[in-house]
Write a structure and sequence with these properties.
30% of the residues lie in helices and 20% in strands. The protein has six helices and nine strands. The longest helix has 20 residues. The chain has 200 residues and is α+β, with helices and mostly antiparallel strands. β7 and β8 form a beta hairpin. The strands form two sheets. A seven-stranded mixed beta sheet has the order 2-1-5-4-3-7-8, covered by helices on one side. Strands 6-9 form a two-stranded antiparallel ribbon. The protein has a single domain, classed as Glutaredoxin (3-Layer(aba) Sandwich).
Length: 200
């Protein structure tokens, strides 16, 4: 009995450790249903014709996130018609980061003219599942046999400061690879940005 109990405890610890790490490339991604800045609720199942998704955890105030806003709009405009729309999610706890409240999200989306949904991870239930740690942090999903699989994780490109100095467009190259029927290379890069503000 004690051995069984110990085994159960070890299994639970291992499960929680793996869960805390979030998704790895090749994992199946779960759907979510989160509130958009327009008051509607959005989930990936709403996009029946999508080949995949650019799920990006971002926010209002982080200078890294702000630096990538225009680039995300360009990516959405280019790749949404090809089947890979952008879905942005704000994971920050507004009690720790007041600038990232839902109301401020609405203002920011309107100011920038976001072409994509900007969703609020109320209760911070989604970002730990994905394993997002930074804003911005990208998870590129690819639809295979009607299941969404993680194809790329990491940064948008290699220079947040200056778009003219970008040498490697990691995200765009990864989407292009999927559209060509190939695996992204690289499949993982380190996300550069502000830490997600969570009460844990």
């Amino acid at each position: 009995m004690k051995k069984n109990m110990l085994l159960l405890v070890l299994v639970l610890i291992a499960f929680n450790y793996v869960s805390a790490q979030g998704y790895q490339v090749g994992d199946k991604a779960a759907d979510f249903r989160l509130k958009n800045v327009d008051g509607s609720f959005v989930s990936m199942r709403d996009y029946q014709d999508a080949k995949g998704f650019v799920v990006v955890f971002t926010c209002n105030h982080c200078p890294y996130a702000v630096a990538y806003e225009d680039r995300l709009i360009e990516i959405d405009k280019k790749y949404r018609p090809k089947g890979f729309p952008v879905i942005a999610i704000n994971p920050n706890d507004p009690s720790l980061s007041p600038q990232d409240s839902y109301e401020h999200m609405q203002v920011r989306a309107r100011e920038k003219g976001f072409t994509f949904p900007y969703l609020f991870d109320d209760g911070q239930e989604v970002f730990p599942v994905y394993g997002a740690t930074r804003t911005p942090h990208v998870f590129l999903l690819n639809r295979k046999n009607n299941e969404l699989t993680v194809a790329y994780i990491g940064a948008i490109d290699d220079n947040y400061r200056d778009v003219s100095a970008v040498r490697e467009k990691f995200l765009a190259n990864a989407i292009d690879a999927l559209l060509a029927g190939a695996d992204p290379d690289p499949q993982f890069t380190t996300a550069i940005g502000c830490t997600i503000k969570a009460d844990n």
